[in-house]
Design brief:
Layout (H helix, E strand, L loop, with lengths): L1 H15 L2 H8 L10 H20 L5 H21 L2 H8 L1 H23 L9 H12 L21 H13 L3 H28 L9 H14 L4 H10 L5 H5 L12 E2 L2 E2 L20 H7 L4 H4 L1 H10 L1 H4 L8 H5 L1 H17 L1 H21 L4 H28 L7 E4 L7 H22 L5 H24 L4 H5 L3 H24 L3 H22 E4 L6 H28 L7 H19 L1 H10 L12 H5 L1 H13 L6 E2 L11 H6 L8 H8 L2 H17 L3 H10 L3 E4 L1 H7 L12 E5 L2 E5 L7
Helix pairs in contact: 1-3, 1-8, 2-5, 2-18, 3-4, 3-8, 3-18, 6-9, 7-8, 7-9, 8-9, 9-10, 9-15, 9-26, 10-26, 11-27, 15-18, 15-19, 18-19, 18-20, 19-20, 19-25, 21-26, 21-27, 22-24, 24-25, 25-26, 33-34
């Protein structure tokens, strides 16, 4: 576990450098921003390293990363010199900082134990994420060369992977271990950040109980990181024979119920836990606990701490203590830098999140402006003036990165197929909604009827516009195809209207904390409703990514809102009468919520039975299952770099094809074709490379294949298990005429001859 300790120390050094800048930026919050220090500090260093390398062609590597760390600490030193009062404020928060470190270590250890059970970088998109990490590690400048599209830079959001690599470089840890510790560190940072965020929301109003923010933070952490969909609970019940099979089948989830075989209380069916994220047909309903158990250090997971921090950037404005004009940024430049960096980082890590959390901040500002009596047009103008500088800062920071991407255009389209029926919708969200619903019910907010009708009319108008657009487009069948999905739309419209009305009443009564809870609930309803009516068509051509990305962010919003709602209900010491109704209702909610918490440990145990050797190294398996490939990777790392291209057979996506490039960081001609097509949309270039690889392997060591290889930039050819499977056992003999630079255990690397001088 010494590597895990090194990771923690490296991350702590980086995070500590951001504590005083955050105190200056968010000193008005209860936490003073200290619980966001690790993700913000890491983000600032990664942004510095990426942008400096990209704009100046300075070599990317440990020296550049250390310069970024030193500059962050120089900022801290300047604040100590110029604002000594910050040190006094820091000493007042020592207990908070210590509690955050304890929470981080607990979550970090839990996540490491979960990830160690199945470390191999072989399932789902782990090979892709490993390729991103090794490509970044082997890069000389930013953006890095694409490990699966040699000679061309990456065309995928990868700043989150750069953040992982920054910690790995400081700690002296390679990409194989980064795969495990990167996930664990991300989970711990997100947990600490949401713990602080829920407490900050509760403290927006005068508190009566000192423990209230701690209770709010605890519920928020559990909801974010440990809670699962209701389907996960039903999997466990059905596996234990509880309920008739027909009951579970009636929910319409493919594969439910599974087989009724359990061992030590955990189902034995292979990957039974997967179905908890496949509740809606044709889409993905992933949640953070599943992400950790699956173990892919994917963009949406790596962006989680930044997303939580992005919500925190809205709190100073929502508190009503900050003037909403451009002068606030002049008086607090640290807030401008950090806010711009957070949203730029989101755009560079998982671009969808920048839109979602930007909407959270925008809604918070518009709510405050509206409560001040501004008319709609004037309020929008005031908000625009307030957001001009942070939006400009975020755009300037993110532009070099975004301009380097070669992506398929994304367009907004009507969703005119069967929507989410209420049953499946509740299977996804009911456990997550319970703390929020319980808290709101106990708080018993004041709701004006006219405000509810106004909110309902606003969203109903959007639904009617969607329906009219379908009729005009000749898709009137979409209205009848919606089926039971109309009930879901009605639930969302009513939920939004009631929450928005409660938010308005709370703001009028100056109950800012309650207003924040109700506002987040209303915004969650609006976001989900939007995904039921529209979708962003990307290279996949359907709504899968829209639901996947937006609902994942909604999980964060509802987790923090639920935690804050419970904390506020406790703080107000609300009445629990009539007890004959309240206590049974609370007991039922506790059973459902607690049942949904059983999924994560059960799924972790199930994964531990898959036969993988527990380890912190995600590539250690290669030496056991394919020692020839492992040896080739060692040779390639030692002798080649990202300017070379090692040809490998082009295989299917989600297969073990391109294992050498994924593990070594030295690119191949083309890896997973479907992923490159999704990232680039460059069909002609993909076809040329695909046919070129097939031609070279088919021809062998001929003058024509050497010419084709040189034309494509290929400098070496790899022959291993995938190549033998595709081209036959004699494939190695076909390249006997070329210089063999590595050969062992059935694997071979041959050098493409250089062109003869004329």
């Amino acid at each position: 576990m010494s590597t895990a300790l090194l990771w923690y120390v490296a991350l702590t050094i980086v995070g500590a450098g951001a504590v005083l800048p955050l105190l200056q930026a968010f000193g008005g919050l209860r936490s003073g921003g200290v619980w966001y220090a690790k993700p913000v500090g890491l983000l600032l260093v990664a942004l510095f390293a990426w942008l400096t390398s990209a704009e100046t062609h300075a070599p990317y590597g440990l020296p550049l990363v250390l310069v970024g760390v030193v500059l962050l600490w120089v900022w801290t030193g300047a604040l100590v010199w110029m604002r000594p009062a910050l040190m006094t404020e820091l000493r007042r928060r020592v207990a908070q900082i210590a509690a955050g470190e304890v929470l981080f270590l607990v979550l970090f250890a839990i996540a490491i134990v979960a990830r160690m059970q199945t470390p191999n970088a072989t399932d789902t998109e782990k090979p892709m994420d490993l390729m991103l990490l090794t490509s970044i590690r082997g890069a000389s400048t930013m953006p890095p060369i694409d490990g699966w599209y040699g000679g061309v830079t990456l065309s995928y959001y990868h700043l989150g992977h750069v953040m992982v690599d920054v910690v790995g470089r400081i700690a002296g840890i390679g990409p194989g271990i980064e795969m495990i510790l990167g996930v664990a560190g991300t989970v711990a940072m997100a947990g600490v950040a949401i713990f602080g965020l829920a407490g900050d929301i509760v403290a927006l109003s005068a508190m009566r109980q000192r423990v209230s923010p701690w209770l709010a933070g605890s519920v928020a952490v559990v909801s974010l990181l440990f809670l699962a969909t209701l389907e996960g609970f039903f999997e466990l019940l059905s596996a234990h024979g509880v309920g008739a099979p027909g009951l579970w089948a009636s929910f319409g989830v493919d594969g439910l119920p599974g087989t009724q075989f359990v061992q030590t209380g955990v189902p034995t069916q292979f990957w039974w836990w997967w179905r908890a994220t496949r509740i809606l047909p044709g889409t993905i309903t992933e949640f953070p606990a599943f992400s950790v158990i699956l173990g892919d250090p994917h963009a949406h997971l790596l962006a989680l701490p930044l997303g939580v921090t992005a919500i925190a950037t809205a709190l100073p404005a929502f508190s009503g203590k900050t003037p909403l004009n451009w002068s606030v940024w002049r008086r607090n430049p640290a807030a401008l830098v950090i806010s711009g960096a957070v949203f730029a980082g989101l755009a560079m890590t998982n671009a969808w999140d920048a839109v979602i959390y930007g909407a959270v901040w925008g809604a918070a500002v518009l709510a405050v402006i509206s409560a001040s009596g501004w008319p709609l047009f004037g309020g929008v103008m005031v908000a625009g003036r307030y957001f001009a500088l942070p939006a400009l800062a975020a755009g300037l920071i993110a532009w070099p990165f975004l301009a380097s991407l070669q992506s398929v255009p994304v367009g907004l389209h009507l969703f005119n197929e069967v929507g989410s029926d209420p049953t499946r919708f509740l299977l996804v969200f009911l456990p997550l909604l319970l703390p929020l619903l319980v808290g709101i019910a106990l708080l018993r907010p004041t709701v004006r009827r006219d405000a509810v009708l106004t909110g309902a009319a606003g969203l109903a108008a959007i639904v009617l516009t969607w329906g009219a657009s379908n009729v005009i487009a000749g898709q009137s069948i979409a209205l009848s195809a919606r089926g039971h999905g109309w009930y879901t739309l009605a639930m969302l419209v009513v939920g939004f209207a009631v929450a928005a009305a409660a938010c308005a009443s709370a703001m009028k009564a100056r109950e800012t904390a309650c207003a924040a809870v109700f506002g987040l609930a209303a915004l969650a309803c609006a976001i989900v409703l939007a995904t039921e009516l529209f979708f962003l068509r990307d290279a996949l051509g359907d709504r899968m990514n829209t639901v996947f990305k937006f609902w994942y962010a909604v999980w964060v919003v509802l987790a923090v809102a639920g935690g804050a709602a419970v904390g506020l209900a406790y703080d107000r010491m609300v009445s629990l009468r009539p007890r004959w109704i309240v206590f049974p209702a609370l007991l039922l909610c506790a059973v459902v919520y607690g049942g949904a918490l059983l999924y994560a440990p059960a799924a972790t145990v199930a994964r531990s039975r898959e036969g993988q050797e527990a380890s912190l190294d995600s590539v250690a398996y290669l030496g056991r299952v394919d020692p020839g490939a492992a040896g080739a990777v060692v040779w390639i790392r030692s002798h080649l770099n990202s300017k070379d291209i090692v040809l490998e057979a082009v295989g299917r996506d989600y297969s073990e094809a391109a294992v050498v490039s994924s593990t070594s960081g030295v690119p191949t001609l083309m890896g997973w074709r479907g992923h490159e097509l999704t990232w680039r949309g460059n069909i002609a270039g993909l076809g040329t490379r695909f046919l070129g690889a097939a031609y070279i392997y088919g021809e062998g060591a001929t003058a024509d294949s050497a010419a084709r290889a040189r034309e494509l930039g290929v400098t070496y050819v790899y022959i291993g298990r995938e190549e033998i499977a595709q081209y036959g056992a004699s494939i190695a003999s076909k390249f006997a005429a070329w210089d063999t630079v590595y050969a062992a255990n059935g694997s071979r690397v041959v050098r493409v001859p250089v062109e003869a001088a004329r």
